[in-house]
């Protein structure tokens, strides 16, 4: 009797382990290669930018257009739009300086124009910085957005 | 759980198409607390969004939890009338989805 229950339970647990292993390993393997965990987990702007572009030295450029509201009433939904007239753009990033994890989005462009639009969450009043990698050089532009009600946590 | 996706394609000049994609997704940062139980709500947000034109990757977007819920993402890709644009996404819990549409 004891032997039987032991067999049963060990069989069940090994089956569970296998299922968990198969279920958990698959997505992490796919995503780990793609999603830049270090960059998105970074707590400050410089290390986030460095993890994305390999450098954090950026020059201000007026060839990047960042469209964001000057005053956002609701920090949970702040519409932003980034476009650029720089040539050879292959990567762009959106950083919200005073968020807990500043990096919001990274765009890799294979064939298309440098353009990105989204709605972001902002914890409090902060500058939004758009980084654009063009011909191996990093450029940026920023705009301050005032937030009256924060959209991160509560 | 099936998540609804909406796609909109606007044709621009010189072979560029604007793709707008809306996914019905909670986009939890993992930093928010449940008001009743005072426990952290686990992170659940889209990590990757891929834009393909005729099966070839055109843009590749990585997102953090700081994107608003039900994200509406827009990019410009090179595409002509009749080309098929496919958008696929995956999140940190292994959920994924995709939608495709022809350029008008």
Low-confidence stretches of chain A: 19-33
Q: What is the tally of beta strands of chain B?
A: 7
The CATH homologous superfamily of the largest domain in chain A is termed SoxY domain
Which residue ranges of chain B are poorly predicted, with pLDDT under 50 across at least 5 consecutive positions? none
Which class best fits the helix and strand makeup of chain A?
alpha+beta
The counted number of beta strands of chain A is 9
Oligomer: heterodimer
Q: Assign a percent range to the helix content of chain A.
A: 25-40%
What report would you give on this structure?
The complex is a heterodimer of chains A (154) and B (104). By secondary structure, chain A is α+β, with helices and mostly antiparallel strands. Chain A has two domains: 1-34; 37-149, Immunoglobulin-like, CATH 2.60.40.2470. Chain A has three helices and nine strands. Chain A has helices at 2-34, 37-41, 45-53, and strands spanning 59-60, 64-67, 71-74, 78-84, 89-96, 103-109, 112-120, 126-134, 137-149. In chain A, strands 1, 3, 5, 6, 8 and 9 form a six-stranded mixed beta sheet that branches. Chain A has a three-stranded antiparallel beta sheet with strand order 2-4-7, with no helix packed on it. In chain A, strand 5 (89-96) and strand 6 (103-109) form a beta hairpin. The longest helix of chain A is centred in the N-terminal third of the chain and has 33 residues, at 2-34. Residues 19-33 of chain A have low confidence and may be disordered. Chain B is elongated. In chain B, a hairpin with a 2-residue loop joins strand 3 (46-53) and strand 4 (56-63). Chain B has strands spanning 5-11, 16-23, 46-53, 56-63, 72-78, 84-91, 96-102. The relative contact order of chain B is 0.30. Chain B has one domain: Sandwich (Immunoglobulin-like), CATH 2.60.40.10. In chain B, the strands form two sheets. Chain B has a four-stranded antiparallel beta sheet with strand order 4-3-6-7, with no helix packed on it. A three-stranded antiparallel beta sheet of chain B has the order 1-2-5, with no helix packed on it. Chain B is built from no helices and seven strands. Chain B has 104 residues and is mostly beta strands. The chains are: A alpha+beta (154), B mainly beta (104). Chains A and B meet through helix 1, strand 4, strand 6 and strand 7 of A and strand 2, strand 3, strand 4 and strand 5 of B.
């Amino acid at each position: 009797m004891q032997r039987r229950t032991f067999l049963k339970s060990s069989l069940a647990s090994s089956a569970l382990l296998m299922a968990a292993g198969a279920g958990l390993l698959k997505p992490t393997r796919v995503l780990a290669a793609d999603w830049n965990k270090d960059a998105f987990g970074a707590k400050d702007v410089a290390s986030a930018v460095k993890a994305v572009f390999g450098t954090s030295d950026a020059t201000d450029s007026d060839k990047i257009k960042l469209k964001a509201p000057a005053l956002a009433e609701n920090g949970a939904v702040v519409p932003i739009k980034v476009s650029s007239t720089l040539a050879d753009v292959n990567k762009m990033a959106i950083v919200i300086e005073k968020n807990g994890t500043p990096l919001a989005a990274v765009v890799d462009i294979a064939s298309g124009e440098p353009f990105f639009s989204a709605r972001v969450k902002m914890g409090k009043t902060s500058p939004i910085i758009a980084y654009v990698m063009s011909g191996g050089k990093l450029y940026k532009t920023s705009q301050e957005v005032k937030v009256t009600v924060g959209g991160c946590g509560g | 759980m099936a998540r609804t996706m909406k796609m909109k394609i606007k044709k621009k000049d010189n072979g560029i198409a604007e793709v707008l994609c809306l996914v019905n997704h909670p986009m939890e940062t993992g930093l928010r607390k449940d008001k009743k139980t005072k426990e952290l709500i686990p992170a659940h947000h889209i990590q990757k969004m891929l834009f393909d034109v005729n099966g070839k990757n055109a843009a590749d977007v990585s997102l953090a939890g700081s994107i608003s819920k039900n994200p509406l993402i827009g990019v410009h890709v090179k595409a002509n009338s009749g080309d098929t644009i496919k958008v696929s996404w995956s999140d940190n819990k292994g959920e994924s989805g995709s939608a495709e549409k022809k350029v008008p």
